[in-house]
Amino acid sequence: MKACALCGKRVTVDKYFSRKSTCPDCGGDLHICLNCRFYSETSHNKCLEPKAEFQRSRDKANFCDYFVFKEGASSSSSAVKEEANRKLEELFKKPVSEG
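^ that's the sequence the OP posted. Answer follows.
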């Protein structure tokens, strides 16, 4: 499953996918570092591909020739973050005493 890194919604990528492709839900660019399988917060230039040129903006369309849309839900998507925060709140919620 491919998901938009900006909104977390599922997207379908066909043979016409290009740098100008946008998410049908949020309208954000899809050919961005945040959607690439090589994107890594901890790597040099935030990219696992050593030949890729530095991209100043990670959330705007770029011309990177090494872009490959990553599979799976985006760990940086807002939907995933909201779900994680909800689970944490439930975990640490104090029980209400009846009395």
